[in-house]
Amino acid sequence: MKAKPAKKSVAQRLIESMEEGLEALRADKELSGTFVALPPDPPQFDRRHLRTLRRRSKMSQPGFAKVLNVSVKALESWEQGVRQPNGAALRLLQFLENPSLLLRMTKGAGSSSRRP
Q1: ∠73-53-74 over CA atoms, to 5°?
Q2: What integer pLDDT is reported at residue 23 of this predicted model?
């Protein structure tokens, strides 16, 4: 059985990437990369907005909490206005409210070439 090649360190991969970039720049070559069009920042979801979104989705609090990967207590506190969702939960709420944003984002992703 063949031994797996040793995994390169982050530093080594970074050095190789920089060398590749410099080589491309000197040779006036194009580099390939993946570009993703990010949606706008998610809006703040106040308690009414959040409750409306959950009800429109026809989900119970436990079901909605599971989809968001948060506790039912966290969701309850958001819906009561005690706390507000943030971070990844806000982004997921944005996609739940407007699924076309996610579709546009994934359609826009892909490899393309571009000069450094």
Answers
A1: 10
A2: 84
